[in-house]
Amino acid sequence: MRIAVVGGGAAGFFGAITAASQLRSAEIVILEAGDQPLEKVRVSGGGRCNVTHHCFDPAELVNNFPRGHKELRGPFSRFQPRDTVEWFEQHGVQLKAGDDGRMFPVTDNSETIVDCFLTTSRGLGIQLRRNARVKSIAIVGADTGHRQFEIECHDAAPEQYDRVLLATGSEHQGYRFAQSLGHTIVSCVPSLFTFKVTDNRLNDLSGISFTRVHLTLTSGESKKLEQTGPMLITHWGLSGPAVLKLSAWGARILHDTHYHADLTVNFLPDMTIEEVTTELLAFKQNNAKKFISTETPVPIPKRYWSRIVQYVGIADDTKWTHLRKDAMTSIVAELTHARFAIIGKGIFKEEFVTCGGVDLKEVDFKTMQSKLCPGLYFAGEILDIDGLTGGFNFQSAWTTGWLAGMSIVV
Length: 410
Prior knowledge:
13 helices, seven-stranded antiparallel β-sheet, 22 strands, five-stranded parallel β-sheet, FAD/NAD(P)-binding domain, alpha+beta
């Protein structure tokens, strides 16, 4: 059996290694368009490689995938982060978990993962062809009863294969191959990005972070989207885990509105409006002679509190005893439902994550085989699947690659 794996990334290597481990007699060839395979693995996590996430409950794990959460529930019950950890341990790589659940090799070096894959694949007899840019994939021999895939690479003669695993990531060439074999491609748009916000309340406050805020995104007639978590003020607007999660879940909505939307921020999500008001009144009573702008009665950064006080029109030399009821109401509003206008999409170090790809309805998630083209398999980002930051996208690659590798040799 001859198997071609198109794409030498995380999903492609994992699928190839799994297949070779199941059927040692199979001839498996990885066709990598570039000179350096596993490039995203190398740069992931700032060169440390965020291999997976320490979430071992499949039902909880799927909640980190804006696209693909329903389809991945079954696959994660068969190969999940716990299995990923065990797989790497069996191949000589120990992983460790950080306080936020992200898992890295104990070496904190992505080359550990790259070397593991290259060494394991060589040991299994897998051929790695670098600079093998695929030009076309076609079905041949269907009329003779000996159906195969003919793959033509640039500057090379066409070759025939019995099975093909497409693992080209978000490369447009991969989508073109899938389309040529009958598949529908859901248009790709960015996922995981920051919000561009130009607002006086944020000026010169870059670097200020909030431990926990509640965000609500509204755009036209679209359904409201909400997220809770840490947030960061940047030079261009707002970032941090809560913003990135919201950008992922709202990726298509924001794309359709050209990244213009309304964002409501509750800086005190664990308190009701009444509780916030009571807290301010009590502080006023106990600190009557102190300046409002310099005393922070609630758990938010002092510089942002001072900015709120200034924003609602309270002079810097105003003391708590002189705080009027209307000014109090304005402060409470700014603390619990401050409104900001998103006017564009900022940047993020992992913005290479996109949503879009092969339509999931056209893939059997028990085997990762195409429902439309027998012998064709998919794994990784070529599918319309994307996860949040934290190792989830790699876990999707390992899981779909493993399923494809297990099934492609049967």
